[in-house]
Fold:
Amino acid sequence: MSPAEAETKKARKPTAAEGRRELHDIIRTARAMEERRLNPFHMDVSEALGTADRFFGAWDSIDDLTLDARTLNSLSRVVKMQEARLRYQAQLFHADPEAMVEKLKSFNAAKLGGLLLQCWHPAVELEQLTASALEEAMAYWQELEPIELRHRERPKAQAPAMEQLSLDDLLAKGIVPRDGFTASVGKLRDELQERGEVGYAEFIHAPTYTERVKRAYATSYLITYGYAALQRSEGSMTLRAKGEREPPGEGVSLPLVVPA
Structure:
């Protein structure tokens, strides 16, 4: 239709029969778009709305008004299809995380599985059975113990028996002085009485490790036989001499640490 004919058509009063034909054409075109036989952008929605508006004054029955409503409903579905097509084309160029999540939610399990198979490229390891591999396997199984022997209880390792050091051993190692153990312990007790309450590590400190071991051994003797008291408080240990010997009522095992 030429522009002049279109102006003439607009100038004359539209008839109801022409309007029905125009609206039926719009509805058929919209249905073809819903059935994916036409591109949604094949229709100019603004022009179709103008056509429906031009014939609105010609309606003279309920059926004509119903046809007008059907036309508007069809055009609204076309607009939705155009919006969906625009969203899809926009996602081809830019896919933000939220859009990807929404898109994945719309897929069912079968479609997700198909997409996984399309993008999954597992590494394949190929092994070849050779004569040497068979010989190695045969040797392994021939040397393997029977299952009842493999599951038997293994003997448990025994801890070495504890040994006691004799006086000769202590003398040989230099822990007990040869000039008299009692005399050295007495000197250490006198020193503790002079120093008063003192930290254990500070009291046994000496220039060499051997001397520290000797002082620790003698100090343990003082504690065991009631000549000195050892107190523990918040991870620290303090020593103090007793005025009179107070032997403990029962044996007490008290491990002491010798700083390196």
User: Anything to note?
Assistant: The longest strand covers residues 228-233.
